[in-house]
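Trying the structure run again after the queue cleared.
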Amino acid sequence: MKSFNLHLVSDSTGETVITVARACLVQFDDVKPKEFIWRMVRNRAQVDDIIEGVKKNPGFVLYTLVNEETRDALEEGCRPLKAPCVPLLEPVIGAMGSYLGAEVHARPGRQHVMDAEYFRRIEAMHFVLSHDDGQSTWDMDKGDVLILGVSRTSKTPTCIYLANRGIKAANIPIVPGVPFTVDVEKIKHLLVVGLTSDPKLLVQIRRNRLKMLNQDERTDYVDFETVTQEVNDARRLFTKNNWPIIDVTRKSIEEVSATILQLYNRLRVEQT
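Done. Tokens:
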């Protein structure tokens, strides 16, 4: 495993540069970065601190800085250290500006301005938290998506990811011996999605969960035959109601959410 120092510099929260850097790194095998994250960098003194950090921990510098003076100071400081210093947004912004014939206005943190989209995401997050794991079923029809699945099929993290995209998502666990009592007609306008998983992997995930909680593993919760029946019963419920099924086995939350967003957008088109 090759290790290296990665300095991520941002004039805002750092979400953009962190996300892109990690997305790039997954393309390399056996590489593990030691991240140094520098947030809210907006003056020369802060840049000087970064340069000192790069001196102590030489490595690759990736940045999102829109202020020209701050950007130049960072690049000039990295040059004598022979530290690669790469702007993340500059090529894209420059190309777009040329194509649109528009002037670029350098405003740090502008991507996080509190506009209608921002408040829509906050509202969606409140909805997810109040409708998690079968809570507040009486008004879940006010949402956009309803996710169903047996225990440990990533329902909650998927809902939280969707909330960050402005989607109000509720989730209900499918529990053995407990009938599904939600009025199907009431949620007909929602995108209802069933999550499933390979029973063998599901048992492993559940067993790890029990170990983490120091609970007894001698339970039907991790019995392979019982879990297999549980998964099959849930699938039958989904199929009976013609709800799309997503197999989350070895899929990331991002992949599952992307599929749900595709289904949601398709449903919105059909309903208009």
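The domain at 116-271 is CATH 3.40.50 (Rossmann fold). Worth checking whether this holds up in the mutant runs.
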